[in-house]
Amino acid sequence: MTASTDRPLVDLRNLTITFAGHRGPVTAVHDLNLTMGRERVAIVGESGSGKSVSARALIGLLPVSAKVSASRMDFDGIDLRGMSEAGFERLRGSRIAMILQDPRQSLNPLMTAGQQIVESCRLHHREGRRAARERAMDLLEAVSIREPQRVFDLYPHEVSGGMGQRIMIAMMLAAQPDLLIADEPTSALDTSVRTDVLEEIQKLVEDRGMGLLLISHDLDLVASYTDRVVVMYAGRVMETLESRHLHAARHSYTQGLIGCRPVLGHPVDVLPTLERQEAWKS
Amino acid sequence: MTAAAVDIENLSVRFGAATVVRGVSFSVRPGECVGLVGESGSGKSTILRAIMGLEPVSDGQIVIHGMPPRPDRLTRAGTVQMVFQDPYASLHPRQTIGRILEEPLRIHGIGGREDKVRAALSAVGLPISFRFRFPHQLSGGQRQRVAIARALILEPRVLLLDEPTSALDVSVQAEVLNLLKQLHAERGFSMLFVGHDLGVVAHMCNRVMVLENGILKEELSQQALHAGCAEDPYTRKLLQAARMEAAVVLHVR
Ligand SMILES: Nc1ncnc2c1ncn2[C@@H]1O[C@H](COP(=O)(O)OP(=O)(O)O)[C@@H](O)[C@H]1O
Ligand SMILES: Nc1ncnc2c1ncn2[C@@H]1O[C@H](COP(=O)(O)OP(=O)(O)O)[C@@H](O)[C@H]1O
Ligand SMILES: [Mg+2]
Ligand SMILES: [Mg+2]
Q: pTM value?
């Protein structure tokens, strides 16, 4: 892994994403700027604020109906603007990995968990079948799967959500990408499993010195697992701040999001609600 | 002693060889809001569906204001109604909001429907003009308001809520929870509230039942939940996870 230069891993300037709507074009993301290195950055905001489409632009996974423009759009010094589908495919296979909310969306339903990890190992390490199988078993163990032998032979539909995310992470351990984009990776999981999966992601990112772009609507989660937070509303960045300073957020939108949650140990009669301001949209 | 709104005695529900609810007993007093928490698969939804008369009770009994649960719509009118997690799946996609709200009234032969639909919309804070819209033309929060309006239009004495805000943004969740609390205070129905976010459940409920693998582990008061006092190890684990999450971003208010 080459972490020698100072150039950022991701450098987005004025990223604007527009969809063709029934009544003319709809701009989903306006002038997003985001520069990150091998650090942990979160994008938070309500649904529809543009978190997912921003990340998908970065890996070339937007529908053809989307128009993407930017004054800069670099991944590790590589200009992504106008990159071919084949080019994006190469990047996704080796340098950028993505975990989605439902692991079953990302796993191949026709292959067992083990086969998928083996394939990933063979691809990235140019290993023989037997060596790859051994490595796959190790990787399953590395993501705290208790019975790797059994899980190896399970198909995606036979595993729980938490297990599916672990399998995704094991595949990633094989590929050793530079950037992990995790889009609501734990939103479909139970609270107790959530923490475990996030700890696995954490370990992976830390051990391999990767960058993490964590997309979530959950402020608590973001505060514990990232260094920096980008807060989005209606396709715009409201503010960017250090995660550990979230409680001292300046922007009234961020304050509103934090204040409206019912919190254990802090009983209130009526929950504060978010007063959305027109000014945030310009 | 006044009769319970919902009284569940030693309830068991089996699906084939699997017993998913095992000897659960608790009751909801009139006007009370009781919470039901536990991980997914612990049997929360099954209990609600059993109260609706939609699941076979293999053992024990359920009594709602002195009556057994009945799956047929006639006897359920005015007694128990339910609100689901996904308001999109639970609203007919090709019916207007007006039609959706009118339907239960029509089934029960209740007159003055036009007025009741208007009143129901305004009670949940939606413009009257929304009765001409279709579900897909509404936001998630607005759809959940419609689902609540539909559940309340028959003036039930018991409202069952199955993770009613889990699919919503926290900002929209706050609005929906405030609405539910306000309607509850105004109308005095009883609530059984299933949720996985303990902060939400503690905010809404007077008492909370903790379920693990179909077994009732512990009952906690609202105060105990806020204070993080629990006896049962499983409950303590749930509480600890919730408190750890919440501790991080606290104290903005
Ligand atoms: N394929 C698409 N066609 C048209 N509009 C889209 C498409 N995908 C996303 N959008 C719009 O882009 C905006 C941002 O969406 P998204 O990034 O998915 O939000 P989120 O912050 O919830 O991840 C939304 O208003 C959404 O309606
Ligand atoms: N119709 C059914 N047939 C068979 N098993 C079911 C059925 N409905 C629910 N179950 C099972 O019962 C258990 C409890 O489910 P549920 O009540 O939905 O849990 P919760 O709402 O707490 O997540 C689960 O293991 C689920 O798979
Ligand atoms: Mg998204
Ligand atoms: Mg359920």
A: 0.89
